[in-house]
C-alpha cells in the first residue's frame, strides 16, 4: 500500500493506451486462465483505488473521474473479450462469413457500450450496460494447426452467444479477488425476451421496424467499446441514422415523460427522509432526459449536438442557442452537484447507492439540494412543454 501511495497517486489521469499497456503486461505474465481472471480483478481494484483516492483528495474534476472509470471499464472489457474469444475458439473454431467475391472471411464482433459506459460517465460501483453484435450469418471452421477431432462446428449465432456468455462469466464470476463488473444486457433488441447477441442485419431490422421511442433515446449513448473496431464504428454510423433520420412521434414529450414518471414512482420511491439522486424528482435523470429530448429534436439539423456525454451536450445546446444561458447554468451546476453527491455516497458506503436522507445534511446543503432539484424539474417540464 505504501508503494502504491508513493508511486501511483501522482498519476491523476491515465490514458486508455497506458491502461491497455499495463493490463496487457500483467496478463502476459499469467501462467493460466485462472491467474488471468484474478489479474483482471486485481487490476480493476487497484485502478479504482487510485481513481477514488484522487477523487477524495479533490484533485480530479468530475469529468476526469468519470472518464477514468469509463476508460478502465473499456480496457477491462476489451481484454475480457480477448480471453472469451480465445477460450471459445479452442472448442468451436473460427466463425466465418461470406466476403467479396464469394471468399469466406472471419466474422466480426463488437461490444457496444450503452448508458453511462457509452457516454463515458461511469461512477463507482456502476453496472455496465452493453449489447453484443456480430457481422453476419455463417458457421465456424477449424483453427489451422489444431486437432480437428477437438473441433465442433456451430453457427455464427451460437458461437458469438457462447463468446458473450463467456465474457459475462469472466467479468461477473466471484474468485478470491472478487468480481470485475456486473453487466446489464437488457438494452438489446427485445430486452430479456430477445437473443443475447444479434447480427447486424437483425439489429437494423429491429430498430427500423419495431423499436420504441425510449430505445431510440437510449441509442444516443451507444458507443463501440470492445471487439473489432472497424465493425463497431460501422455500427455507430448506423445507430446515428436510426436516431436522427426519422421524425419523432407527435406525442414524443408525453411518451418520454410517462417513462420518466414511471421511473420516479417505481424506482425512486421517495419520502421526506429518503431522496433519490438519480431517479428522484429533479434528479440526474431529469437533466439527462431533458438533454436527450433536445438532442432528438435538434440533432437532425445540427451534428454538433450528436454527442454522448451529458455535460458536453449541455454545452453544445447552449452554443446552438437551444438552451438559454440561465437554463444552461442551472442544469449544468445542478447536474454536477448531484453527480458529485453520488460519488461521495458511493465512496463512503462502498456500494452502488443513490438514496440519502436530506435531514443528515447541513442546513445550507439541504437548501441547495432543494433549490437545485426544484429548478431542474421546472426546466425539464418547460423543455418538454408539459405541466406537472
Describe this structure in words.
The protein is an alpha+beta fold and 388 residues long. The protein has two domains: 2-244, Beta Polymerase, domain 2 (2-Layer Sandwich); 252-384, Nucleotidyltransferases  domain 2 (Four Helix Bundle (Hemerythrin (Met), subunit A)), CATH 1.20.120. It is built from 14 helices and ten strands. The chain has helices at 2-8, 16-28, 33-56, 62-92, 115-118, 156-172, 200-209, 213-218, 229-244, 252-268, 284-298, 310-319, 325-349, 363-384, and strands at residues 94-98, 104-106, 109-113, 128-134, 139-141, 183-184, 197-199, 223-227, 275-276, 355-356. Strands 3, 4, 6, 7 and 8 form a five-stranded mixed β-sheet that branches. A three-stranded antiparallel β-sheet has the order 2-1-5, covered by helices on one side. Strands 9-10 form a two-stranded antiparallel sheet. Strand 1 and strand 2 (104-106) form a beta hairpin. Helix 2 crosses helix 4, helix 3 runs antiparallel to helix 4 and helix 12 (310-319) packs antiparallel against helix 13. The longest helix has 31 residues, at 62-92. The N and C termini lie far apart (52 Å). Mean pLDDT is 94; it is low at 1-8.
